[in-house]
Design goal:
Length: 262
């Protein structure tokens, strides 16, 4: 494995481990679901501004600043994702998070092995796009068919795919040395802000958008996906109460059918 590819793998692996560890540390620090995501977004913005200033004005500190930025962005990723699982009321088990991290790192390493195939080197853009689409498709399918026990794990994996792609793209950058490659990877790591925005959007949508089977609630009080372009469904508890007090609604629609004019 060449040095550039190995550096990419190490940076992604370190970022993934830090992020996933942060996800499970956050519940020990706060029970407020808004703390993680509301802190992560300003962290991304602050580090981006600081990195730009240092890179332009204090170049001798640019190199360590990039590694600090990678670490802070990884922590911010974990903080944002932790808010989502607090919102859902369920976190993936530690062993599930570890398995997910190992799987993503393994998929990253697998492509580095594929780069030794002549076709992958000659047509690297096509090869990377195909590989990325295959991974996205496979994990999306898994997320859609995951069982109750693995739902949180699948959500974590598909959400972190954004960070995976962010580290994956710079594999083919035109860096001449490690410093140039780290610079590119560092700027791509701000894609974690997309993760934070997605988490914020889910949590802000009325607070009732957990994925099917993920929220820790019973069948009466559980939230479901809502189609904003369709009529809102009646609350199941209210509907049950109505059917008890008005037996005529047990088997009949709320409005009688219209009689034909002729």
């Amino acid at each position: 494995m060449n040095k550039k590819s190995l550096l990419s793998l190490l940076l992604f692996a370190a970022s993934t481990v830090v992020s996933f560890a942060t996800i499970h540390i956050m519940p020990l620090l706060t029970t407020d679901k808004w703390v993680g995501v509301s802190t992560a977004i300003p962290m991304f913005i602050f580090m981006f501004i600081v990195l730009l200033i240092i890179s332009k004005m204090i170049e001798k500190f640019a190199k360590p600043a990039r590694y600090v930025t990678l670490a802070v962005n990884a922590i911010a990723d974990g903080m944002a994702i932790s808010s989502l699982f607090m919102h859902f009321g369920r976190f993936p088990a530690i062993w599930q998070a570890a398995l997910s991290a190992a799987g993503l790192i393994g998929l990253f390493a697998l492509y580095l092995a594929i780069t030794y195939i002549p076709f992958a080197r000659k047509h690297y853009v096509i090869s990377m796009i195909i590989y990325a689409l295959m991974i996205i498709g496979a994990i999306s399918a898994w997320c859609g068919t995951a069982t109750q026990a693995t739902k949180a794990m699948s959500v974590l994996t598909i959400l972190y795919l954004i960070v995976f792609i962010a580290f994956f793209i710079p594999l083919a950058d035109n860096a001449h040395c490690a410093e140039e490659h780290v610079k590119t990877v560092t700027y791509f790591s701000f894609a974690g802000l997309i993760v934070a925005v997605i988490v914020l959007a889910i949590m802000s949508d009325g607070g009732d958008l957990p994925l099917d089977g993920l929220a820790a609630a019973d069948s009466v009080g559980s939230s479901k996906k809502r189609n904003p372009y369709a009529y809102a469904p009646y609350d199941s508890a209210a509907a049950s109460a109505t059917s008890l007090t008005n037996p005529k609604y047990n088997d009949n629609p709320p409005f009688p059918p219209l009689k034909p004019l002729l």
